[in-house]
Amino acid sequence: MYRIRIPLPSLRCSGKNNNNNLDFPLELKAGDLIEIFRSCYQHWAIYVGGGKVVHLAPECKFYRTASILAALSDKAYVRKDQLLVVVQKDTYRINNKHDETHPPLPVSKIIQKAEDLVGREMPYNLTSHNCEHFVMELRYGVAMSDQSSNPVLAVNSLGGLGQVTTSQPPFPPSVNK
Fold it and tell me: What residues are labeled active site?
């Protein structure tokens, strides 16, 4: 019901699952976390079906630089876009990396919460409110980011352009339902 097969010729996907085993074609299910490998950081989105993802990004149509632009701002927007538009020429993979330690919320709740947030302005902070925190909160109910917990990765996400700031609650109280 929530599965879709996307033909590989039009995608540049890594075709790797969490265990780095080849898995062609990549089969996406609603609620899957999508890790997109940009040049110096990873962008994260959550698959909602129909070839679309919901993700946190600045108001910008240039997705390859979107997270860097967001890092220089204190706000970002929840967007729903075609996966291929967000991925562009980058590789990506399904990475539901915390499923063994944090049980995912029911898919219907994940999708409903993601859809409800589309178009909303959200706080953005490289270390406490980034795109990885956003999708982890949707899937697991817990905002977490491996990128931001590593100061070297956090600074590299900016291309060395920013500073690390103090943590705040992951989302406004109305989002944490």
Answer: 43, 55, 131
